[in-house]
Amino acid sequence: xxxxxxxxxxxxxxxxKVTAELLTLARSFGEPAAVFxxxxxxYAKAKDYLAQFGAAKVYVAESDDxxxxxxxxxxxxxxxxxxxxxxxxVLVAATADSREVAARIAAKIDSGLIxxxxxxxPELVATQGIFGGSTIVTSKVTKGVPVVVVRPNATAPEAxxxxxxxxxxxxxxxxxxxxxxxxxxxxxxxxxxxxLTEAQVVVSGGRGLGAAEHFALVEKLADTLGAAVGASRAxxxxxxxPHQNQVGQTGKxxxxxxxxxxxxxxxxxxxxxxxxxxTIVAVNKDPEAPIFxxxxxGLVGDLFNVVPQLTSEIEQRKAG
Amino acid sequence: xxxxxxxxxxxxxxxxxxxxxxxKTVDRQSVDNVMNEMDEYGxxxxxxxxxxxxxEVTVVxxxxxxxxxxxxxxxxxxxxxxxHLSDDALHGSDALATSAALAKVISTLSPDIVITSSEASDAxxxxxxxxxxxxxxxxxxxxARKVTVDPASSTVQIERLADxxxxxxxxxxxxxVGVVEKINQPRYPSFKGIMAAKKKPxxxxxxxxxxxxxxxVGLAGAASTVVxxxxxxxxxxxxxxxxxxxxxxxxxxxxxxxKLI
Lengths: 320, 261
Hints:
The complex is a heterodimer of chains A (320) and B (261). Chain A is of the alpha/beta class. Chain A is built from 9 helices and 17 strands. In chain A, the strands form 3 sheets. In chain A, strands 9-8-7-10-6-1-4-5-11 form a 9-stranded mixed beta sheet, sandwiched between helices. In chain A, strands 14-13-15-16-17 form a 5-stranded parallel beta sheet. The longest helix of chain A is centred in the C-terminal third of the chain and has 17 residues, at 303-319. With 261 residues, chain B is α/β, with parallel strands linked by helices. In chain B, 27% of the residues lie in helices and 30% in strands. Chain B has helices spanning 37-53, 68-77, 95-107, 128-136, 191-197, 218-221, 247-257, and strands spanning 2-7, 9-11, 33-35, 56-62, 81-85, 113-117, 140-150, 155-162, 165-172, 175-179, 202-205, 224-231, 239-242. Chain B is globular. The N and C termini of chain B lie far apart (57 Å). Classes of the chains: A alpha/beta (320), B alpha/beta (261). Strand 12 (181-187) of chain A pairs antiparallel with strand 9 (165-172) of chain B, so a sheet runs across the interface. Chain A: InterPro entries: DHS-like_NAD/FAD-binding_dom, ETF_a/b_N, ETF_a/FixB, ETF_asu_C, ETF_asu_C_CS, Rossmann-like_a/b/a_fold. Chain A: Keywords: Electron transport, FAD, Flavoprotein, Transport.
């Protein structure tokens, strides 16, 4: 069975859930071979996780050159592995960093690229929601080794404990790939909440909140539910919440089990980033807000009354 | 500073977007087309760099004849000249072929800085900056929310957006910069700008003019294909309730019934 290369998504070695999803997907049509790229000493934190979720093999590439430059070194290593391993496909998580790496890999190995797949058959036919999820297409790569960028939550991760063989990759990065040097990483907001794109529950706030400090209401509800916090473009444009949390056409696309929109009208711009959520709940004082046209449960009312009541009700139910 | 900025004409965000029934490419005929909104931030950043450090801004686009409207917009904002790569053979090009074609045109312009935006609203790949960097062999300064050019040391530093903050990334010129929205406030074209745009130099290139192999671009050269396409099942509205003072409790009940809490 051919290998399927899975680029491990991690933060300083701590694997993201999407990695387990990709390994599960890879197992459906090949032998999952995880590719771990990181700074020296970071693999140790991912080792057990990769074994737990069924990696048959792990290519371990640790180098300061990988962590120290944008994009190009990672693409160079993976493209090199494609040359030696002749995999059936390369699977990459749909994060801002990794999709760029995926594109560079596809260019280097002269193969086709598919992004934002929400499903992938063993025949490598990918499903994508395009135009903000309003059209569903299936597509496939027709040239080379398919490079497929897969959305988080595309599949449920299934454990398949084993003992992967480890292959240490001799990391030699070309000078050309060392152009964009990362000189510092600055953490602005450490929330402790789940990643927006990976979260099972997302609570988002919009224009109706009226001020930055009112996002505390959204955060409190989110924390009660173990949710990530999102924001509409109106809210990020106003500077009420960080741009990184923006959901919508020019922000992130999310597809959680539950999406709660607080004070968001649901214009097409926002809808494009969240309409594939399984269940949508909306709280808005305007009964004409477009979000009520596609919400599963809509509450017409003042969010400043509804949200605190909802938060305390959930807390009580959890306590009871 | 010789600055190149890429722009793309896309269907209006508010238009109902569709794929062409015959060849499953984006239907650009039946909708209003506009400059990709994110590209306005790219053009603005190019103009700001020019205003701060001098130089020239060249707009590059690939697209059908009517994409010249988008070029005009960029010129009316203040760009100096434009190159329009336009050929029926390019129709249906995927991101990989598009990046190769654009890179070929851009390399003849010998830029110090190539600016692109983080994504186009029609395809939403978010990969063109990385691909241009790869094709041109230049440092990839994408996902930039702030760009600082230092002509004295011939370096560019950006704040690259990260999930919990940003990375400070530095490179020597020439570079590819990819900007995110909110990096600036794009200007509106002035009446004077609109009039001046009509007289600005515009070069139109065919695939052959640009030295492109027709078999490697367009639908013929695409490395992936759409197999099927259908509208997503419509999302109908569910239960709408007016708050009577117990709205929060009602939402909680709904969540409990759905086993979401």
